[in-house]
Amino acid sequence: MRLALTLFLALPLAFGQTIGEALPPWTPGFLDIHHINTGKGDSALLIFPDGTSMLVDAGETLRPPPRITPPKPDDSRPPGEWIARYASHMLRAIPAEHLDYALLTHFHGDHMGEIDERTPASATGRYKLTGITQAGDRVPFRLLLDRGWPNYHCPAPSTSEMMANYRDFIMARMELSGMRVERFQPGRRDQIVLRREPAKYPNFEIRNLAANGAIWTGEGSETRGHFPDLAGLAKSDWPSENMCSIAFRLRYGRFDYFNGGDIIGGPNEGSPEWHDVETPVARVTGPVDVHVLNHDGFHDSANAFFVQTLRPRVHIMSVYSPTHPGQRVLSRLFSTRLYPGPRDVFATNIMEVTRVVLGDSLSRLKSDQGHILVRVDPGGDTYCVIILDDSTESFKVKAVHGPYESR
Asked: Is the CA virtual torsion 407, 24, 57, 103 positive or negative?
């Protein structure tokens, strides 16, 4: 028994992740899910078992410190460029000069990039470079998925300068690089697929769970509408941008991963019950191994039913604001009353002011600073969580957690 335990604990080193050294590159059969910390918003890079790649969000909020964390690695480059460089480095083993997919969960600056008078123009002058437009300018996307294409009228026409710039980017890249664009369609499991060797990994799937209030029923590709008819509703009760976020579940063998953008589960007092999107999404998601907190762990996320239903072994928080995470949210994540057994919680970037407010409750985090990589072993039976240094582009391993057994 002691020998078996010793070998089990030594597995991360056997897999090549050595603390203090650069991360070994992705190899075929592994699933890599990188949660990239720029300090300015959300972004994740996924490398599927056959080398197919997908970028989920590329945020760039213009809120200044102390309302947000300092930039990572530093302010010598904008977040979209750091994200593109990160992706190029991690894709070098494939190799690839493009991303097969980019998925934009919803239209907020910390997920897609804000603009102002200082935002530089692209080389063509047809759009400005921020967040996802900058990342896509440097590493082209083959297929861009969002919740609004082609008219962006749900639940109402989007007319902001940020959205106009995003649409200018789409039209330019369709013409210049042949990028395709599709509306994300809930219920489907054939919209995001392996592009290189699908027959080799038949146990890999991405299920589109929700977008724009349409939620998969759990049967076939059918969906049902969660939002009521907006006619007659006061505009103050209309679904917010966060409620319209894309949600998906990735499955690789026994391993399951959930990402729901900024859907919420704790509406403001007096709001309609249907403002809770987490609860119906949880019902069709079921238990997962790894859960990315909705809305960055803000107070309106991770309601009790959602946490109890998904009951993850690993929670990941992409955080960059003093309000990330909420105290009660953190309590629910650790609550063994909601579900039994161990769980590990990781955060990309806890602010000092948050430490003052939350105090000792943050001491239970397994990590509170750095890029967070979930590396799933071939076949999906086991995985580990690797923390990478975010202060430089060395991509050195700071810590290795696991291996964990998938459900």
From this structure: negative
